[in-house]
Design a protein that fits this description.
The protein is mainly α. α3 runs parallel beside α6. The protein starts with 20 loop residues before the first helix and ends with a helix.
Length: 187
C-alpha cells in the first residue's frame, strides 16, 4: 500500500483567516469594470521606461526653469550679509501650487497617463527644491543668522502647504468646470 505524501498547507491567500475586509479591498481581481469610479475602459499604465523618460524630460525642464529664476533673482549669502532667497521661496510656492492644481484637476477628471509623471513628478519635482532650502538655511546658520534661517524655513513650509491646498481647491474647481462644459456641450 502506498501512502500519499502529506499535503502542503494552502497558500496564505486561500486561508480563510486571511479573508478580511482590508485584504478584499486590496484584491483588484474581483473588481469588475462596472464597479470602478471611471466610466469606460481602463487605460493601461505606460511602460516603466516611458515613465522614466517622462519624469526625466519634465525634471529637466523644471530644473532649467528654476535655474532661470535663480539667475534672474540671485540671493547673497556671505559671512556678514544674508538675504532671504526669494527666488527659491518663489519656485517652491509656485511648484506646490502647480502640483496641487494638477492633482486637483486629476481628482475630478481623468487625465492622460503621461500627465502625472511628466508634469507632477518631473516638472514640479524638478522645479521645486527643498534641498536648496536646507542648504540656504544652513548657510544662514553658518553666517550666524539662525533666527532668519528659522523664519525662512517656517515661511517656506507654511506657504508651500498653503499653496498645495489652494492648488487642490482651484484644480478641483477647474476640473469640475471643465466637466460641466463638456457635459453641457454634449447635451
Amino acid at each position: 500500500m502506498t501512502s500519499s505524501p502529506p499535503s502542503s498547507p494552502p497558500p496564505r491567500r486561500d486561508d480563510p483567516r486571511m479573508h478580511t475586509v482590508e485584504m478584499t479591498a486590496l484584491r483588484d481581481v474581483d473588481v469588475a469594470d462596472s464597479e470602478t469610479l471611471v466610466s469606460g475602459p481602463v487605460r493601461p499604465a505606460p511602460a516603466t521606461w516611458r515613465i522614466a523618460l517622462l519624469v526625466a524630460a519634465g525634471g529637466a525642464l523644471g530644473a532649467m526653469l528654476r535655474f532661470l529664476l535663480t539667475v534672474l533673482d540671485p540671493a547673497v549669502t556671505t559671512p556678514t550679509l544674508v538675504e532671504v532667497p526669494w527666488a527659491t521661496l518663489t519656485v517652491n510656492v509656485l511648484g506646490s501650487l502647480g502640483l496641487g492644481a494638477l492633482n486637483g484637476v486629476l481628482e475630478v477628471r481623468e487625465g492622460r497617463p503621461w500627465m502625472r509623471p511628466l508634469l507632477g513628478t518631473g516638472l514640479c519635482g524638478g522645479f521645486t527644491t527643498m534641498s536648496t532650502v536646507v542648504l540656504e538655511g544652513s548657510a544662514m546658520i553658518g553666517a550666524d543668522f539662525p533666527l532668519l534661517a528659522l523664519l525662512y524655513a517656517a515661511l517656506t513650509l507654511a506657504l508651500c502647504l498653503g499653496a498645495i491646498v489652494l492648488g487642490l481647491l482651484l484644480g478641483n474647481r477647474l476640473g469640475a468646470r471643465g466637466l460641466e462644459a463638456t457635459d453641457g456641450g454634449a447635451a
